[in-house]
Amino acid sequence: QVQLVESGGGLVQAGGSLRLSCAASGSFVSTNRMGWYRQLPGKQRELVATITNSYSTNYADSMKGRFTISRDNAKNTVYLQMNTLKPEDTAVYYCYSRDRLMREYWGQGTQVTVSS
Hints:
The chain is mainly β and about 120 residues long.
């Protein structure tokens, strides 16, 4: 089992920055693929970015250049640095983990609100 706890969400003005953190606990977490998804109001959950245990990253096109995903395996933590935030980035952001058996885990979500 893997437990994921997000932090760092909040209210920010357009053009501002936030850094989300996700602390993971459980067996072999450092070998898991980690990532961030988000759910905008009234929309389905969508990919933001993922990072493998070898630090290979993948981003949704609309996030490239503004968001940066990183991980610290010593702390079992994954981060999402979000810059130049826009009101359309307002969403609940979820931490994600997938282990070698393809089991998926989700955090409880953290709200990010960007005011115009």
